[in-house]
Write a structure and sequence with these properties.
single chain, 334 residues, alpha/beta, 6 helices
Amino acid sequence: MVKTFMLSLLSALVFSIYPSLDHPPIFIFQDGFVVIDVQTSHPATLSVFVRVNNDEFVLLDSPSERHRLQVPVKEDFTYLLSVDGYKESGFVRFPSKSLKRAVILIYGDTRNDGTVQEKIVKMGKEMGADFLIHLGDIAYTDLDDGDWGKFFRVVSQFGKVIFTVEGNHEYPGFRYHEYLYPSNYSFNIGAFHFIVLDGGTFPGIMEYNLRKLLVKGRRNILLVHEPFYTCSNHSADIFVRLQEKFAKSLGKYGIRYVISSHDHNYQRIERGGIVQLIIGGGGAPRYRVRKECSGLKTFSENYSFALMRINGETAKIDVYNLSGDRIDSLVIGK
């Protein structure tokens, strides 16, 4: 009994000195700044050494299980992060409209899969991605902490700023909004302005949020989990059918490109002046594609992801399978 007590005491001391990480650092973008998010299983002190050009400073957070530190600069930076026994360093690009070149990793519908998503993140990082966009259905259920932990452990390996879209599996959104982003927001990377909309609502509400987030004169790209057009399982969904009507009004806002997931495959559909990309092969069970479908230009039923390479005023989107074979390519912004 004494031995058991001593072992329990020693274990408690070890965990208090070297707390296990519920998720290693991830980087999100809030209120115009990069935020470092770290969660530990026991209270711990977080310190981050930051270098920007020739300036250096240290960020400190008091002992806690959940840390969110805002990096108070609007430039690229290097960092050295320490949470007691854990250390990590890296380089983070700041998402800005002044960027001339950038590479964005895009995929969606991972749900509670870790293996496929881990390979996608690894391949994207090796191929030079600066930012990551997850198009939704991050967890199987919003309140499953195990699913969220799996997601954080995978994307933390990316080590750069991530953006996310709220999917239907994030409903009712309690964890999603606590951990990540609001349902509707926007951000700039280079010449492109990305507008994130909640697709699980009615067209009038979506159009209202679009008008609030639209920036005239910019190359606006719409990110929404539920596609406006699809040639797969979700083509009969109520919100997809409603959004087909909304899609017809996008032209007056100067929006031509919509990037979604929801269906677990890759599709490029060109219909009604809109180019709809569905990049949903991120790890959830794969769906078949109806080949005889209006506007379907190309598709893949394999797991897949995209890299958007911004170069000045244009960008090239290449779509790859997990073998690294390119399955589609298009240039936007011309």
